[in-house]
Amino acid sequence: MAAFLTGETGASGDGERADPGLFGSGSVTWQAHGDPMMWIAGIRALYLQALHPRAVRGVMQNSDFRRDAWGRLLRTARFVGTTTYGTTRAAQEAGARVRRIHRRLSAVDPDTGERYGVDDPGLLLWVHCAEVGSYLHVLRRSGFPLTDAQADRYLAEHRVSARLVGLDPAGVPASRADLAAYFARVRPELAAGPEAREVDDFLRRPPTPRALVPARALLWRRVADLAYGSLPPYAHELYGRPAPDPGTVTRRLRRAGTVLRAIPAQVRWQLPPRHILTAVARLGPDTRPAAHRLRP
C-alpha cells in the first residue's frame, strides 16, 4: 500500500543484467516474497492499514477506490515485485515516482478541517509496518519456514524499502520486538471510521464481472475471510465483527499454504507481471526463490 495511490512499477535497463537488486537472492525478502500466500498477506495489510483514520483518508480522498480497486491492488503488487526482484535502478525509480506523487497529495480531517500531506512520515511508517508485519505474520502462520532470527532479518532488510518511499531507515522497526513496540504505541490512534468500513465492505463484497461472479465471488470471500481472521484481536474488536477461533484460522492458513505451494513454482511465476522469472533470467537459475535456500 506504500504505492497504493500510485501503483508505480519501474523497469530495468539492458546494462543491469548482473544487478542483484536491493535485496539479492540470498536475502529473506527474495525467498519469502515468492510465496503464494503473499496475496492473502496483502489483503490482511489492507484491512490493518484502513484502521488508521488519517492514512485511509489519504487513499479514499485521492482515488476512486471502488472503481479502480482491483487495478490499484495489482499495481501495488507490481511495486512490491519491482522493489524485490527488479534491478536497483528500477526499484529506485519506482520509489522516486511514489515520492513525487505523494508530495502532491493531501487529505482533510473532517473533524478538525486540518489538511495534511499523505507523505507525512507517521502515515508512511504506519503503512510500511502494517504491510511488512502482515507479510511476515501470514507467511509464518501458514507454515513458511522462517526462524525468529530470519524474521528479524526480514524486517531489517525492509528498512531499505522504507527509504524508497521517503522514510528515514533509522526510525523504522528492524526486529519483531521493535515492530511489536511500534504497534503498541500506535494502537490508541486506530479506529474503524467510515472509510475503514467502506474498505471492509469492499473486501467482503467486491464487484466482479457477471460471467465470473460464482467462481470469483466464492474464492474472494474465502481469501478475504482468511485475511480478516488473521488480524490481531484489537482489529477484530475495532471492526466489530466476530473474531474467528485462532486455532481454526491457523489450520486454514496452513491448509491454504499447503495447497498453493503444491502448484509448481514455474506455473505460478508465469502470471503477470513475471518479476521472478525476469530476475532469474537476469541472474541465473540458482537464484530462484525457494524456502530451503534461506540461511540459518
Automatic annotation (TrEMBL):
<feature type="domain" description="ER-bound oxygenase mpaB/mpaB'/Rubber oxygenase catalytic">
    <location>
        <begin position="30"/>
        <end position="262"/>
    </location>
</feature>
<protein>
    <recommendedName>
        <fullName>ER-bound oxygenase mpaB/mpaB'/Rubber oxygenase catalytic domain-containing protein</fullName>
    </recommendedName>
</protein>
<dbReference type="GO" id="GO:0016491">
    <property type="term" value="F:oxidoreductase activity"/>
</dbReference>
<feature type="region of interest" description="Disordered">
    <location>
        <begin position="1"/>
        <end position="20"/>
    </location>
</feature>
<dbReference type="InterPro" id="IPR018713">
    <property type="entry name" value="MPAB/Lcp_cat_dom"/>
</dbReference>
<dbReference type="Pfam" id="PF09995">
    <property type="entry name" value="MPAB_Lcp_cat"/>
</dbReference>
